[in-house]
Amino acid sequence: MGDAIRIEPLEPRTAPDDLLAAAHAVVAAARSFDAPEDEPPTLAAYVADLRHPPAFLRWPHWLAFVDDGGPVGVASLELADLPDNRNFAELEIDVAPEARRRRVGSALLREVLAAAAADGRTLPTAAALLDGPGPRFLAAHGFTFRQRERRSRLLTSDVDRDLLTGWIDRAAERAGDYSLVTWSGPCPEEHLDGYARVSEVMNTAPLDDIEFEDMVITPERVRAVQATFPARGIEPWTACARHDPTGELVAFTELWYHQHRPARAEQDDTGVDPAHRRRGLGRWLKAVNLLRLLDAHPEVRAVSTWNAESNDAMLSLNVAMGFRPWQDWGRSSPAPRPSASTSPHRRFSGHRDGDDRAHVPRTARGSEAA
Ligand SMILES: CC(C)(COP(=O)(O)OP(=O)(O)OC[C@H]1O[C@@H](n2cnc3c(N)ncnc32)[C@H](O)[C@@H]1OP(=O)(O)O)[C@@H](O)C(=O)NCCC(=O)NCCS
Asked: Kind and range of the H or E element at 248?
């Protein structure tokens, strides 16, 4: 006989503070145990994220209890009500270290998968540290491995300002037809349409075996994500390249400074329109943006980012900037792999940097990626 496990739903927008604090304690304990080199989210950051998701995101959570004590497991499911990827949903499960191997994770996963199925989400997807228990747990539940991701970290003490300045200087030779457009905070109204359009370059990023439709990024979607930033303590720093002959924004990169965690910034998305690649636009924008952020916030000690391990272009640029491999992650999904010829989904190939989940809002783990 196993333990009596009780699962209770938690609606983070309205849940009492003490329940969110109890959920945070489980998540922080689980993450510190599996990745002691990383700081788990502070209570303030965790609660701010949970209380303020974008308007298009439903984000049910569940708590698991064993006996009469506090919660020992937390699960969540991101249900984005957007026109694309209606069958996709990101799930997370964390079980406190002392409660593991007692079927708590399995009970939570059953609940999450039932909720996903009830919402028509045939592609629930989970990410887990490769050297933690997550991949074996997911495999035991019939998930198949879809994509390997590298999480990298740049220590600001390693930043070579001369190198970055050299990249910026070379842009004048290699990219004479382009000019720089930068802002911090919300996207200025005059750039909103162009910024939404260039954000769709993320649809060319590699997803390996993840089945994901092209995202439709409208100005409203950009605004819905940005509207959450003040409450979540996120300050975005953006640099774009404008192609002067057409006036179009054709490349962009974004860094996020966190007021709740000022020592570590995050690299969010970077994208260069395929028609404008190999002119040094990526190097130029990333160099400019990093120096802008560090000049404004010298308290930043590190910048972290995620990239698909298959994303050679973005990884080599990041390595050249001084990013070093930090953690290995894998993404899995339970649905059987479709054959390439019959899949309605695109196989991805291209560039992805920073947080692919700013638009697929992956709010829980902090939003970096790809
Ligand atoms: C992964 C996690 C949720 C599992 O929770 P759990 O309550 O310990 O899992 P269960 O007891 O339900 O395990 C079910 C099965 O998964 C497999 N499994 C779980 N942990 C495992 C481990 N450390 N090594 C090998 N297999 C493991 C086993 O097959 C296990 O069955 P068994 O105990 O009869 O052998 C928990 O370890 C955790 O919080 N990890 C960190 C976060 C994470 O990776 N989450 C998963 C992705 S969202």
From this structure: strand 248-258
Cβ–ligand 1 contact at 271 (below 6 Å): no
133 lines ligand 1 (CB under 6 A): yes
Question: Helices 192-199 and 219-226, interaxial angle, to 10°?
Answer: 90
**78 CB less than 6 Å from ligand 1?**
no
CB 203 within 8 A of CB 345: no
Intervals of CATH 3.40.630.30 along the chain: 5-146, 152-358
Structure pTM?
Answer: 0.90
Does domain 5-146 bear CATH number 3.40.630.30? yes
104 lines ligand 1 (CB under 6 A): yes
Question: Thinking of the domain 152-358, which architecture would CATH place it in?
Answer: 3-Layer(aba) Sandwich (3.40)
Of residues 366 and 311, more confidence is placed in: 311
Please provide the average confidence, as pLDDT, over all residues in the chain. Answer: 90
Atom of ligand 1 nearest to the CA of 92: 48
Measure Cα distances from 168 to 158, 221, 281 in Å. Answer: 18, 31, 9
pLDDT class of 225 with cuts at 50, 70, 90: very high
What is the distance between the alpha carbons of residues 123 and 142, in angstroms, rounded to a whole number? Answer: 13
Candidates 108, 137, 329: which one to mutate for ligand 1, based on the most atoms within 8 Å of Cβ?
137
Residue 352 binned pLDDT confidence (cut-offs 50, 70, 90): very low
Answer for the pair 63, 86: CB distance below 8 angstroms, yes or no: no
Per-residue pLDDT at 335: 65
Cα–Cα distance for residue pair 295/243, rounded to 1 Å: 26
Q: Look at residues 193, 277, 205, 199 and name the one whose alpha carbon lies nearest to residue 238.
A: 199
pLDDT class of 338 with cuts at 50, 70, 90: low
* 49 CB near ligand 1 (under 6 Å): no
Check whether 367 has a pLDDT greater than 60: no
Q: How far apart, in whole angstroms, are the C-alpha atoms of residue 84 and residue 166? A: 40
pLDDT (0 to 100) of residue 344:
37
Ligand 1: which atom is nearest the Cα of residue 129?
44
Phi first, then psi: give them for residue 321, nearest 5 degrees: -75, -20
